[in-house]
Amino acid sequence: MKIVYTDVLVIGGGLAGLRTAVGVKQRGFDTIVLSLVPAKRSHSAAAQGGMQASLGHSSMGSGDNEDVHFEDTVKGSDWGADQRVARMFTHVAPKAIRELAGWGVPWNRVKQGEREAVINAERVVITESESAHGLITARDFGGTKKWRTCYTSDGTGHAMLFALGDQTIANGIPVMERMEALALIHESGRCYGAVVRSLVTGELTAFLARATTIATGGYGRIYKVSTNAVICEGTGTAIALETGVAELGNMEAVQFHPTAIVPAGILTTEGCRGDGGILRDVNGHRFMPDYEPEKRELASRDVVSRRMTEHMRKGLGVKSPYGDHLWLDISVLGKDHVHKNLREVTDICRYFLGIDPANDWIPVRPTQHYSMGGIRTDHRGESTTLKGLFACGEAACWDMHGFNRLGGNSVAETVVAGMIVSEFIADYCADSASDINVSTGLVREFVEREQAGLDRLVSGGGREQAGPIRQRMEEIMIDQVGIFRTGEELDRAVDELEDLLARSRNLGVRSSAPGPNPELVAAYRLPKMLKLALCAALGARERTESRGAHFREDFPQRNDRDWLNRSITTWPEAGASLPNLGYETIAVADMELPPGFRGYGTRNYIDHPDSAERDARIEKILETVDPDDRHARQAALMPFDHLLPEKYRPRNQRLEATA
């Protein structure tokens, strides 16, 4: 039995994992990163449009600050977010942007003077100030009051990931590629590391650590069509679930991106619409102003996806062999803009569709994109129930996104959470309470259990094959746990997913190759994915309201009275067929911004009984504070500075003295 010891084990080599590793290493603790693929090929590289941070440099971002970003984030979450975490995030985001600039990310910059832009399908002239010349600029994104999304053309994730990859090398952090964590090693509510399989040799190794961090991204590949990379199967989240101790939060909160190309499902960035692109139907009609006259194509993602689906249901989609779709028109931006600022979109359209988006409309429709749910953590990024286990990025329910994420807030969360959580991990490791005293007998037990499971798949005589079961799971999720949901469909989904999970316990594989063996990998990952699918489907069935990306056609109102909470799921035991489901209350009395109207459609929600009282309390508090001191006003309503690592507490500087 091979054992590797380290201070911190980071599972996942994307932006969140690498930034966490760098932060911990800079505090003097040994760190190992495990990655399924070469780190610079992680799914983070697919982020195109940008990263939100309230710099306020560009003229269209003038007056932006943490307060505005916070309000946008909370409203975007449909009041499902942890508002203190949202405050921590919006406060640190400008620091993260500047840090990344120092590490070599070539953010687009403000150029003084007049320039043309497309806003609401019309060409307008924007004048940039001389004082902002050379500073980091921003583009418009959905659900925001200000232009706040910092970008590097449409290759933002790529630029960020390569900069962080270089920092990992500079700090001497080993990144072990083609390594997959199969199970967490734990006992008595304490995590000690993981059992890891080499995808090259098939060898199992136990990695023991004071702190274990999961940063493996989302679980989009439980759906038939997803913008996620093929590695985004949620297995990091699943191994936490399989401990029976770690909790998952909000697993029914699954976001669909409005503009994935048809049929491949590859993302075209929200930057297309942020820069002025528009959506058209089969008749060439720009339809979004008919539904959302104020925000139009730049309503929140969940809203745009639903409006597009509604429009296609009315028979106004474009017929194709791959189903109905709509058109994304960025030709209105002009060839120079498209080929310079939307280069990746141009390449995607050329390679996968054979068109030039500067001239041709792009076939798009809503497609699964992001997982708001994940491993439930506190504000420090540590599991609420399994000590020594941390999570950050899309694998975590931290919870700043609630039931809907704003575009640009996820790539921001990866690095911001990595910055914050790494400091708390380092504090944890510096404390003697993090010392591990684990017997090799326990470690051997976990390693042998995983090896026995692999041997059973290879030689146990199982009759089921992973392919057909997985295909059916993906169909169920896209058809019955998708953009629009009903109780009847969700009942069927849960029942059939239970049956598929039972069948997956009789899997067999034909290839006994010990090393690279895709058939074996597919077989041992499938039950984990089915468990996540069940968590999502069951959570959606039981949540009899509509909130953010979770929309129940039979319960179309947001119901703050009965459902202002986070769903919490655990897996009771290895042979169970369903997760345990509970709820965590989101207290209105602690909110800086009590539940209200998001600004889309009609005011269709049921008030929480404490909302009016909290609103009145806020008015009284503000009477005692200088109305011109926004920092004092915020601190009086909901203090959060004390929750941050001390190094990130100082205020952000801006061009405008009052910002």
From TrEMBL:
Where is region (Disordered) located? Answer: 47-72
GO MF, one term, reads:
electron transfer activity
Cellular localisation: Cell inner membrane
| Cofactors, names only | FAD
Give the source's domain of life in one word: Bacteria
Query: Which catalytic reaction applies to this protein?
Result: a quinone + succinate = fumarate + a quinol
EC number(s)? 1.3.5.1
Q: What class of enzyme is it?
A: oxidoreductase
Q: Which residue ranges does the record assign to the Fumarate reductase/succinate dehydrogenase flavoprotein-like C-terminal domain?
A: 470-600
Checking InterPro entries in the record gives: FAD-dep_OxRdtase_2_FAD-bd, FAD/NAD-bd_sf, FRD_SDH_FAD_BS, Fum_R/Succ_DH_flav-like_C_sf, Fum_Rdtase/Succ_DH_flav-like_C, SdhA/FrdA/AprA, Succ_DH/fumarate_Rdtase_cat_sf, Succ_Dhase_FrdA_Gneg
What's a single GO BP term from this record? Answer: electron transport chain
Query: In this entry, which stretches build a coiled coil?
Result: none
Keywords in UniProt for this one? Cell inner membrane, Cell membrane, Electron transport, FAD, Flavoprotein, Membrane, Oxidoreductase, Transport
Which residues constitute the catalytic centre? Answer: R301 (proton acceptor)
What interactions and quaternary structure are annotated?
A: Part of an enzyme complex containing three subunits: a flavoprotein (frdA), an iron-sulfur protein (frdB), and diheme cytochrome b (frdC).
The family assignment reads:
Belongs to the FAD-dependent oxidoreductase 2 family. FRD/SDH subfamily.
The molecule here is called Fumarate reductase flavoprotein subunit
Q: From which source organism is this entry?
A: Wenzhouxiangella limi
